[in-house]
Task: structure prediction
Amino acid sequence: MQAARRTPITVAGTAGVAAPQWRWLFAVVAVTGALLDVATKIVVVRSLEPSEPVRLLGGLLTLRLVRNPGAAFSLGERFTPVFGLLSLTVLLFVVLRLAPRIGHVGWAVALGLLCAGVGGNSVDRLFRQPGFLRGHVVDFLQLPYWPIFNVADMCICAAAALIMVLSVVKNVAITGERYVKPGSSSDGPVGPDVPTDPGRPTPNRASGPLE
Result:
């Protein structure tokens, strides 16, 4: 008996193809997040001294200015130029290859957040001291027992979590299709592979929203 394969069907509320409104949403989220990150860093650099942290909410949140030559959460501090080039590569890949395929609101938000985070930290690496592609990223948010981070890092983490939910839990493709297996309920969770019934036709992509 032939093993069942996942069949793409259109998610309710989406067209299953790239839609202009989702691309606009992607752009708005990306630009807004990046501008928020840059703006908060400008304010922090002008207002805080590295040796004078500001404790808020009873010490739950501390504003502490540090300049990080590494990646998110101060990782890989000796590879600043490499992170700069990787960041630009990720941005180009998402904008040129993935964004034109967006057909789902969740993916528009997730990829927008990803670009906001990568773009915000890339601005630091490109334009801050000590030089092009070697600039140190401004971090200023500190929680107890957690590395110091910034708004861009928050965007990247939120994007990663949302992408995991969409692709693993919801099984929603970037185009807006949800992958299910023949014989499974279209609005239920995807179960393990099971053999198909030889007398039952394999469903094709639905032409309209799920019922």
The beta strands are 7-10, 54-56, 61-68, 137-142, 177-180. Residues 95 and 115 are 8 Å apart (CA to CA). The longest strand covers residues 61-68. The mean pLDDT is 81.
